[in-house]
Amino acid sequence: MLRPILATLLALSSGTLLAQTAPTPTATPWWKGAVLYEIYPRSFQDSNGDGVGDLNGITSRLDYLQKLGIDGIWIAPAYPSPQVDFGYDISDYEAIDPQYGTMADFEKLVAAAKQRHIRVLMDMVLNHTSDKDPWFVQSKSSRTDPKRDWYVWRDPKGYDKDGKPIPPNNWQSVFGHSAWEWDAGTKQFYYHRFYVQQPDLNWRNPAVEKAMFDVLRFWLDKGVAGFRLDAIPSLFEDPAMRNEPEKGGTNAYGDPNLNTIYTDNLPEVHGVIARMRKVVAAYPDDRVLIGETYLPNVEELDKWYGGAAKNELQLPMDMLLGFGSGYAGHGKLDATFFRNTINAAETKLQGSEPLFVFSNHDNPRDWDRYSDGVHDLQIAKILATMLLTTRDTALLYYGEELGMKTHTPTRVEDVQDPIGKLGWPKEKGRDGERTPMQWTADAQAGFSTNAHTWLPVAADHTTLNVVSEEQDPNSLLRWYQQLTHLRDSNPAFAPDAKINVLMNTAADVLAYTRAGADGKLVLVAINMSDAPQTLDTSAYVGTGALHTLAASNAPQNNSVKSKQVTLPPFSVWVAEQGQ
Ligand code: NOJ
Questions:
Q1: Residues with Cβ < 8 Å from 184, sequence gap 6 or more?
Q2: What whole-number percentage of the chain has pLDDT above 90?
Q3: Which residue's CA is the closest to the ligand 1 atom numbered 5?
């Protein structure tokens, strides 16, 4: 038996802390109430002129992120990859892709971010690897290879009259057509939930779990603050391989719509996550697990926290508020919907922290999903307000703070994202929401010095960019900065400050109060319609004066004593109780 001090030292040096040395989580961990920012590394900042963003580019923009009030950045996969799915097909889990830089660049980024109180989170793809990952290459090499069972291999159901193998069942790839790919060499199919080049790992094999947990430790030892877990609900499949029921109709690829009951959200995933939580809990500084969780309702979402036990993900994404739960998006500025959804997160998650998000690299940007063509800036300010003034951890997507738009390719020959080629013209792919960050009005928007960027810089960068928005007090960027500043400085926006969603307002008004430890209430009132709306504030915040903390366009006077407040069309008013 090791003597205690030696055991502790060994545990510390290997990074795999023993149970008795596991740190106690802080009462208010850093991620609670944090503002997180998703960076698509190809598109944020190119530092070496190759037209593709990189890690040194991110490092060079940390001051901008600090000023924006960002507490943590989530970097979409920057590991070595054939880039079929732009990094979500990883071929080496413990290295950096040379096009993004080196491991030394990564370490430099983590250190420079730390100096600015910004944490770095990695994207972690556990459901599948690239077909070029040595694990899969080995697995595919023969039926008797020790890695064979690391992936999901099945015999054909039979052969058709032309001798073609028939897939084991009707399961489909999210990216179109059968989820089964035939391997002529070993005469079996392998399962891929996403592209053919993304074979699914077999999480029923404990060796897979062990190997992947080691990968997590590798990055935790490098000081990453946590992980965003890609496609986590898809980890397990039904071992009986039953056909999925058809829902009727066809999708953009012409395949029947399926109810994915045998390939999504299988209960076994929760055991894996609870064990993964123990892996991260062994590290100090409140490392966090974030999940990519598109779920139909808040009751389902609660399961990903571990329910009352709260022993699974700290932050499964609430896609209900910003996306109406689906890839298609809700897209309607509907106060009743937002009121009920924010209230459900507050009342049905057993006190767990909601993680709200309106935009990401897989969906058209929120600007386009919610705009009406007339009040677009006001509407974007409303979305920012819900993200930054409710009781939540907030997740932004790069450029959202500028109101960057979705620039979907108009010609199939310009498409980069493979699903856009496969599904054209019904599915045009995700290039539109991945265009380069618009820093300046210069050629290539300050993103790159190369005239040929991996996706074209949007033409509107000449007017819509960081420099111009910094100069305009009414810009969306300045609104985001103002709200993150309020969130950091006013006790009513502290992570634990209660939120009370007002349920009896006019239908088009979303209003809530936040209560800080100093006892002062702050009212957030949003008019989501194109007509003025009246709010009687006395029932919620008494009859004393209300002092404006932030107003997107009204009421313009700084202090309001009247009980009846008129909110102009599409306006936000944030006001604090005073004398
Ligand atoms: C979800 C990611 O966000 C998406 O970009 C990717 O294509 C799939 N998972 C597959 O990894």
A1: none
A2: 88
A3: 362
